[in-house]
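Reopening this one. Same input as before:
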Amino acid sequence: MDLLRKAWQTVQGWSRRDSAHVVVLSFIVTAAIIHQSVLWFWYIEDAAITFAYAKHVAMGEGLVPFIGGERVEGYSNPAWTFFLVPFSFVGFDLHALARWLQVILLIPTFGATYLAARETFEGTSFGPVTSELPLVAPAVLAASAQFAVWTGSGLEMALMNLFMAVAIWRSLVELRTGAFPWSALWWLGVTLSRPEAILYAAVGGFCAMVGHLKAGRGSLPTVKWL
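Same output, byte for byte:
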């Protein structure tokens, strides 16, 4: 209740500019969902591999491509595979559900992208809005055909995009405040999403290291991150 009260007090303190940003961001997210829905019934066939593994784990058969098969890592996206297991366990058809999950994951991805842009252009994530530039990043993302196609493909990109957006935002917050590097957990999520994704985490960690060194914090934040 205390959290809800604080949230309500924050909303009451919004200026017209703050409210306008919320409205525009809502339109941007809606546009992104519409963009993705153009290919609502299209899946990349590799998604069936993930669905099969998640279903068989939920059934108690283990990590097998088919019942009675060899237990082998035939999938390349462990984070997405294990994310789907609980949904299969309670009886959802993963092929039908994945599309809806990807739309749901899309919403906080845009929120984190917007906050990261605010950190970049305004030096803060919250507080009074001082620039319209933070709206550019989510708008460009919503217009991206690659984002729409791959985020809605049935594969891991929706989850990976969310991990990466939050990781970038949190990294920027830590560079500004010197706070504990919880971004490492989000970069770990990115790493577990795709085989090559550890390269994104490495770049993120390197940039954070340079930023902390420039801020005079030494190497301790990087050690904590690692």
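So the earlier flakiness isn't reproducible anymore. For the record, The two ends are 36 Å apart (CA to CA).
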